[in-house]
Amino acid sequence: MSFLEIRNVVKKYDETVTVLKGINLNVEEHQVVCLIGPSGCGKSTLLRCINGLEDITEGEIRINDDRVSGAGVDVNRLRRDVGIVFQSFNLFPHMSVLDNITLAPRQVLRLSKREAEARGMELLKRVKLEQKAKSFPDQLSGGQQQRVAIARALAMEPMVMLLDEITSALDPELVAEVLDLVRELASEGMTMLLATHEMGFAREVSSKVAFLFEGVVHEEGPPEQIFGNPTEERTRGFLKKIIEAGRM
Amino acid sequence: MTDRESRFRAPSIPRDALPLAIAGIVAALLVALTCASVLWQVREALVATKNHTGWMDALLIVVGVLPLALFIPATRGLQLAIAARRSLWRKDLIAARVLTSHSNSSSWFSLGYAVFALIVAALVWFLIANNVAVGSTFFNLPLIFESFGLVARAFLTNVLIFTIAEVLILVWALIVAVARMIPGKAGQPIRLLSTIYTDAFRGLPSIITIYLIGFGLPLTGLTAPLEEFLTRTFGLQDFTVIWAIMALTLTYGAYVAEVYRAGIDSIHPSQTMAARSLGLSFAQTMRFVIIPQAIRRIIPPLLNDFIGLQKDTALVAVIGTIDAFNQAKILASNRFNLSTVTTVAFLFIAITIPQARWVDRLLERDAKRTRGAK
């Protein structure tokens, strides 16, 4: 039994469009698993299915041997344990940075204001933004906003973090500060599943890499194998294009 | 130089500015004559109605001199147009273009204000026409001053009605709007109910809702216990105000619910996704994330509906509430003069303008707070 088990997951939109066609993937505790693959292959959809933002059509998802997909699942409970960070940050623009972070701990975990803010300041210190606690999201750079979004997800003390192409919307010079933070989380043993186009980063931090293609896991294995010696034709083709684009 | 090059470099010769400048001068002349003639008629009307005193002549002369200021931009336009022609003769194309442009600008300025002045003169002429018939019908100053206290006091009824209705609407419309967006199959009956309500009350003319509720409800006798309660606790005798508030809340609640819904819809779904992903429930997401952002966006259309509501408080006259309009109508029919209704008109305008400015300030301040550099 793995910590996170994805079994034969199928996701259809309107009966006609099938995005996920039977995904099988296991994530162990303290593992960092990278999802790579061409755009439209279903990476983001898979991540959104895991914390119930999307319903799955077939198959099941289990966390800690408890089924977290299908009817009757308390999604609000599930989402406390499964944090997600989005490509476009999605901070709440009408709230200060600190309020963004403390909203869920106060409303969902019912922490007192003082407790939540103490925890929030600690997290801000960790992402090196404690000076920006009173600022509003629109006053921050993209990299800073994404670091706040990570802090916001961490404030719920999740068991697993899902990172959905969190550097894709950033200017190149801001990517490093966000990746450094993820690297730190990985070294602390945070279980993470991340969709990414940063191949060098994926190679460096991941315990396992899964190549998604047309809605299935086409090949998976340790990063040295996937990047150094991929067995599948499609994986080789995809990586070749990445190298040609100068992204690896 | 090749043909092609020369075509591109052909200098553009400015159009002659003189005709427009002459039009400006003529317009200024026309305005001066019109104003003088209208002011003379005003003086005659004042003499005829025995309202004429010495200082009025001084005032009329001052007002009469004002339109002469139009000659300043008009002559400037003319001077510049002549200077532009001279530059053209000297083959100084660039100077000609600059002078023509300035001349046109001056001439249009004087023409624009000439139209403005002519409209004002026409309005004044309308007021004093037919032996000051219009003026005395709508602007009988002695009557306005004399009745102002009564009308203004009755206007407080309008203020009372719309203030209470606005508070109720803000809450009621939000409930209706959120009801219409409740997700899932289980929410379907509530969504349906909310849709039927908005369709019905947006379609109903508010005067009919006021009439039906104001006259109909008391007739059914169902409201008797409520009336008794209100008399006992507040000593209230006139219940029409209550029915008016109820009818206006129902009508404008439907409008404002749609405004709320548009505002909520305008918040990008990624905000809902982010909030739900943190474990917030639908209700918490609405309350802390979506509605606060939506409210900021809907303040201008909300003010629009509230101004509509404030004006519609004048409709309560149909169920016999003594509001400003009803009071003014009573006075108007006693004195056979509509000036009291003019007072009501000005009172409604006077309360609207500060609200609009206040909302502008509010939005500006919020924009500064969340977006200003820090």
Form type of chain B: flat
Number of strands of chain A: 10
Strand content of chain B: under 5%
End-to-end CA span of chain A: 34 Å
Highest-level CATH class of the largest domain in chain B: Mainly Alpha
Oligomer: heterodimer
- Look at the helices and sheets of chain A and give the structural class: alpha/beta
Low-pLDDT residue intervals, each spanning 5 or more residues of chain B: none
> How many strand segments of chain B?
0
What is the N-to-C succession of helices and strands of chain A? Answer: EEEHEEHEHHHEHEHEEHH
The rounded Rg of chain B comes to: 31 Å
Low-confidence runs of chain A (pLDDT<50, min 5 residues)?
Answer: none
The averaged pLDDT of chain B comes out at 89
Radius of gyration of chain A: 18 Å
- For the record, the CATH architecture of the largest domain in chain B stands as Orthogonal Bundle
> What is the count of DSSP helices of chain B, taking H or I runs of 4+ residues?
14
Helix content of chain A: 25-40%
Helices and strands of chain B, in order, run as HHHHHHHHHHHHHH
How many separate structural domains of chain B? 2
Overview of this structure, please?
The complex is a heterodimer of chains A (248) and B (374). By secondary structure, chain A is α/β, with parallel strands linked by helices. Chain A is 38% helix and 24% strand. In chain A, strand 1 and strand 2 form a beta hairpin. Chain A is globular, with a radius of gyration of 18 Å. Chain B has two domains: 10-137; 144-373, MetI-like (MetI-like fold), CATH 1.10.3720. Chain B is built from 14 helices and no strands. In chain B, helix 2 packs parallel to helix 5 (93-138). The longest helix of chain B has 46 residues, at 93-138. The mean pLDDT of chain B is 89. The A-B interface holds A 48, 51, 53, 75-77, 79-80, 83-84, 86, 88, 90-94, 103-104, 107-108, 135-136, 138-139, 152-153, 156 and B 270-271, 273-281, 284, 288-289, 292-293, 296, 369-374.
